[in-house]
Input
Amino acid sequence: MTVRTRFAPSPTGRLHVGNARTALVAWLHARKAGGAFVLRLDDTDAPPEAEAHAEAIFRDLAWLGLDHDRFERQSARVDRHGEAIDRLKAAGRLYPCYETPEELELERRARLSRGLPPIYDRAALDLTEHDRARLEAEGRAPHWRFRLDDAPIEWTDRVRGPVRFAAADLSDPVVVRADGRPLYHLGSVVDDIDLAITDVVRGEDHVANTAAHIQMFQALGAEPPAFAHLPLLVDADGKALSKRLGSLSLEALRDEQGIEPEALVALLARLGTADPVEPIADRQVLIEGFAFERFSRAAPRFDPAELARLNARILHEMPFAVAEHRLADLGLGDVDAAFWAAVRPNLEVLADAADWWRVAKGPVTPAIEEPDFLAEAAEALPAEPFDGETWGAWTAAVKQATGRKGKTLFLPLRRALTGRDRGPELAALLPLIGRERARRRLLGETA
Output
């Protein structure tokens, strides 16, 4: 059977790192198996701004490089959901309920006060035809619940291992609203059947949902897919990320923090596994190394500081051919491989390259503390052309003429040439600055 995974976000907000990890793991599994990755928008209950959110989802997944083989909108499949609803009603697996949200909340609290699990008590199953007619005459439209069988629900999870639920410990899930629209549970199961999904990757907060879904698959005459429930991400202190998802949206990471997609993918692909997190930009390496067996059940820690360090390492190893068009987008002019080789070891985000371009091409206000020494150094500047050997030859001459060495030689030169205390190797930077610009800076002129 061809492996088919899916990522099914709701267009109700921006994708965050938790969503990205789920999508990435599903994508890696599909690509490792030579299968298909399906993108499905679960948009049957979408807000007015849903289309803007959908466009952002497309943009985020494209940025991550997670291409899909098929795209579906759940809202285009309401007829199929309706057919499934009718079929389950006819089989007696759906039953009408008339409680209001307030009544359900009171019942939940009452059960908790008696030390009982806060699950639905199936009171609606005791209603007679007369009772239902009376409630509907009062203006109450029923919502519909899926009646779970009493048999144990078991499956072998790709991450959690053997999982077992007693159906009596679960509430019969509401699957159809009072207005007739299907809720997440039923729509998801029907779509997974019709799209021939073989593997479902989701967060461990959906484990109880999966137990109910398995019976829905069976009630509709379908074999349930395999399931992989990933532990939810926590922060560096072990706390759930849910309070911080705004700053960890893909949009914020990309547009505000300058994170490279390769850095985020490299981190998320191995987070929660025993494999080392490394600056791997080649997706094929990650695909070939993927296996569900490598994931631990422990909650993995997502540390933005680790992501920042990995981002810098990705940039430090990025070839000029990859960076060239990105540098052009920064408006840096005629950037060449020599500039990239000079500055990339000092980058934390790509936008830092613009700062070093200004250092190379000016104007820079030099930091002048010893004008006499710097004037003497300016006199010793060799003729052009400058190359990778110029810095060593020039500083050797200045050392010979002044007797200076070490920090007392190099730091004043760096401050005058760049206006900074640290940065790229001056052996690589000096040819970019050029003789005339270097001379003027040494003499205290902005250039």
Notes: Residues 119 and 171 are 5 Å apart (CA to CA).
